[in-house]
Specification:
- The protein is about 25% helix and about 25% strand.
- The protein has nine helices and 15 strands.
- The strands form six sheets. Strands 10-11-15-14 form a four-stranded mixed β-sheet.
- Helix 2 (about 15-30) runs antiparallel to helix 3.
- It is rod-shaped and about 115 Å long.
- The relative contact order is 0.12.
């Protein structure tokens, strides 16, 4: 088994700066652009691997311990022995850990219109996520190559650490610092994914928008998240919806709310009207004597409930519009009507829960 210190030509007491200088000298000598021989290429890989281990203080320490260098531990070693690190004789988990790990969950926010909320809809959304590398298919290696057994742990993914304590020599198992606990080393990492087994990519996915959702509703798509390192299984994708503002309609639960401008004559005499609702025309009957603040209800023309087949209602608040510009003829007719009706003059009366109260308490109480 090659010794990393010998590979770099430095002593075991070499400083980080000495290790760096040795690596730079050998890299300039053995780099494929300078020395194209096969022997130089193999030595260059060995030199690079040795530098990766020895330039990292934690990995270097683990390598030294795994290479048979027993240490004289203090109380920290004793506590580590009993409370983490494998216990006596390395009785903890053994064997290399897999490179393939589950990917992270992801979340995106999708804006939906009130029209889409009524019955639900399908939308294509674009996400920036990690996907399986198309070159190595998650193996992390260049095509035609494969991981090689780690020369430090012999493929076990763990190394023994011997600690001298008050209880005698205690042996514990620790992840190998050379291979990071995998048991193998990738000498020829895939250039497309840099040995990760996955790459970032923008992809489009179809999303089924359920009916009846509201701002803040979340939906989980299992397996729709990021692919894991080493081609591991995908995480989940969470979609959070936001219902956009509509200039005419608002909602109260599964009911749709709006206001209707009504002429004075239609309010007095009554009328039939067809209004443009979100899902087509809605026919309404205006009874004679309709007042401002009255609410007309069209059954079953609201929003279909979440996980339900029942729809709410369309509720229309009436606002009687008083004309501001009348011809002389129209004014004469209104005066004749006033003289015939002999209404009471304006006066103060008991407060009624009329138009303003209904609008305030029922139509605009969301938010």
């Amino acid at each position: 088994m090659a010794d990393h210190y010998e590979t770099l030509g430095v002593s075991r007491e070499a400083t980080p700066e000495e290790i760096k200088k040795a690596y730079r000298r050998l890299a300039r000598e053995l780099h494929p652009d300078v020395n194209p021989s096969e022997d130089a290429a193999e030595r260059f890989k060995s030199v690079t691997h040795a530098y990766d281990v020895l330039s990292d203080p934690e990995q270097r320490q683990r390598y030294d311990l795994g290479g048979g260098q027993a240490g004289m531990g203090g109380f920290g070693d004793i506590f580590e022995t009993f409370f983490g690190g494998g216990g006596f004789g390395g009785a903890g988990q053994r064997g290399p850990r897999p490179r393939a790990e589950r990917g992270d969950d992801a979340m995106i926010r999708v804006d939906v219109s009130l029209e889409e909320v009524i019955f639900g809809a399908q939308r294509d959304v674009t996400v920036n996520t990690a996907v399986l590398c198309g070159v190595c298919q998650g193996s992390c290696c260049q095509p035609g190559t494969h991981p090689v057994t780690c020369d430090v742990c012999g493929g076990q993914g763990q190394v023994q650490r011997q600690v001298r304590s008050l209880f005698g020599n205690v042996v514990t198992m620790h992840p190998c610092g050379s291979c990071q606990g995998y048991g193998t080393v990738i000498e020829h990492p895939c250039v497309e994914c840099a040995g990760k087994g996955r790459v970032r990519e923008r992809r489009t996915i179809p999303v089924d928008i359920p009916s009846g959702i509201d701002t803040g509703t979340r939906m989980q798509m299992r397996g729709g998240g990021e692919v894991g390192p080493g081609g591991g299984p995908n995480g989940d994708l969470f979609i959070e919806f936001r219902v956009m503002h509509h200039d005419i309609f608002s909602r109260d639960g599964n009911d749709l709310l709006c206001t209707m401008q009504l002429s004075m004559t239609d309010a007095i005499l009554g009328a039939e009207a067809k209004l443009a609702a979100l899902d087509g025309e809605a026919a309404v009957t205006i009874e004679p004597g309709t007042q401002s603040g009255d609410v007309l209800t069209v059954r079953g023309r609201g929003i279909q409930g979440l996980r339900s087949t029942t729809r709410g209602d369309l509720k229309i608040a009436v606002q009687v519009a008083t004309p501001t510009k009348l011809s002389s003829r129209e004014k004469d007719l209104v005066r004749q009507l006033a003289s015939l009706r002999k209404d009471e003059p304006p006066h103060l009366g008991e407060f009624q829960q009329g138009f303003f109260g209904k609008i305030r308490d029922r139509f605009f109480r969301q938010g």
